[in-house]
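tool=predict chain=A
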Amino acid sequence: RPDGVATYVVIDEIVLTGGATARDAAKEFLARYGKHAARVALYGDASGGKRDTRGNLTDFHILREALDEKFGAARVDLRVNRNNPPLKASIQAFNALCENGRGLRRLFINPQAAQQTLRSVLGVVYGDDGVPKKDGNEHLADALRYLCFREQPLLRPRVRMVDLNGAPLPVGDARARRDQRPPRRDFGPDAGERAT
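tool=predict ok
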C-alpha cells in the first residue's frame, strides 16, 4: 500500500488431500511458483516442527530444504512460533486484519483463486465459549490465523525492566515499580503549593 501499512492478500491456495506429504506440498508450490523472484515465507502450526515417528525430518525441514534448493536459503524465511498462539488472541489478530476498529481492512481473500480458504473462513462456527468448533473444515482458516498472529500479534510484548546501565532489574525491585514516582506538585488557587 502507498501509506506503508502492511496488507495481506490470499492470491491462491494449495489444498492436497489423500495422505499428501510435505514433499508433495513443496512439489506443488514449486510447480506453481518456481519462478517467483521475491522472498518466500513459510507459516504454520507449531506441530509442523515436530519430528515424525517415520523419520528424522520435520515437515518444515522438508519444505525448507526443497525451497532453499530452488530459491536459495537467503530468500526463504521460516516464520513459525515454537508454540501455537493462544486461540483467542490469534482469532483477534485475524479479525483485526479483516477489519479493525477504525474500519481499516488489511486482509483480503481472492474469492475465485482461494475458494476453499474463503469457505473455511466463512464456515467457522463458534461455541458458547467463543472457541471455534472443530468440524474438519477449519484447517485453512487455522493456517490463515497463524499467519495473522505471527505478523500482527495483538498481545503486548513483554517488557524487561532495566536500570540506567542496561542491567536487568529483579521483578520485585522497587525501581521497577510504576508507582515509584516523585510527588506531584499542585498549584491550586486556594492554598498555594502542596505535595500529593
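Residues 173-196 have pLDDT under 50 and may be disordered. The helical segments are 22-33, 59-71, 87-98, 115-122, 139-151.
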